[in-house]
Amino acid sequence: ETAEYRIHRYWLKGDKAGSSDIFIDNLPGFPDNLSYNNRDRFWLALSGPREADLDALLSGDAFLRNVIARVPGFLQPHPKKHSFVLGLDLDGKVVANLQYAGDDAYAPITSVREHGPWLYFGSLTETAIGRLPLNRVVAGAPPPPAGWEQVSGALQVPKPLTRREAMNKELQDRGQTPVPDDDQD
């Protein structure tokens, strides 16, 4: 329930099997994906923090919400870059709150996964996978391998080419002249 800023829990086993309850409510941002470390912690990716203006719109008239939802993307406001992840215990209590806002933020974070001594982050708009040593977030977590900070450069996934860029690359590979951009003579 992204717009409601909460997560429901559905019970599969035990006395509560087949029922649901609210796992965590009144989240400080928009919940996206949730992962479990198979021990004691859930990691919740928040695609962005709450904003007062948007809260007012979401709690208002249903007709107005439907109209706003249909506004073309290019007319909608663009959120500020804000990395946001919460660590939750098995009862839904916040045990880690990771945030960073800035032009260089890895954001929006849409997935988070704990694996070995790392937290890995995914995004629909970034060109790489983010990672953070788990011991910087969780007390007593194992450190990453020695020398990890000296890794030269991150492996970047290239952004997809536009149709024109792909066509021009193919023409250049064949030794032909690329098609100029429309705004050039």
Entry keywords:
globular, alpha+beta, 4-stranded antiparallel β-sheet, 185 residues, 9 strands
Topology:
Layout: E1 7-10, E2 20-24, E3 29-36, E4 42-49, H1 52-58, H2 62-69, E5 82-88, E6 94-101, E7 111-115, E8 118-122, E9 130-133, H3 163-173
Antiparallel strand pairs: 1-2, 3-4, 4-5, 5-6, 7-8, 8-9
Structure in words:
The protein contains 3 helices and 9 strands; from the N terminus they run E-E-E-E-H-H-E-E-E-E-E-H. The model has no long low-confidence stretch (mean pLDDT 85). It has 185 residues and is α+β, with helices and mostly antiparallel strands. It is globular, with a radius of gyration of 22 Å. The strands form 3 sheets. A 4-stranded antiparallel beta sheet has the order 3-4-5-6, with no helix packed on it. Strands 7-8-9 form a 3-stranded antiparallel beta sheet, with no helix packed on it. Strands 1-2 form a two-stranded antiparallel ribbon. The N and C termini lie far apart (51 Å).
| Strand/helix succession | EEEEHHEEEEEH
- Spatial ordering of strands, largest sheet: 3-4-5-6
Radius of gyration: 22 Å
Strand content: 25-35%
Look at the structure and give the mean pLDDT: 85
* Strand elements, count: 9
Helix content: 10-25%
Spans of at least 5 consecutive residues whose pLDDT stays below 50 are none
| Shape designation | globular
Question: Helical segment tally?
Answer: 3
Distance between the termini: 51 Å
Largest sheet descriptor: 4 strands, antiparallel
Q: Give the class from helix and strand content and strand pairing.
A: alpha+beta
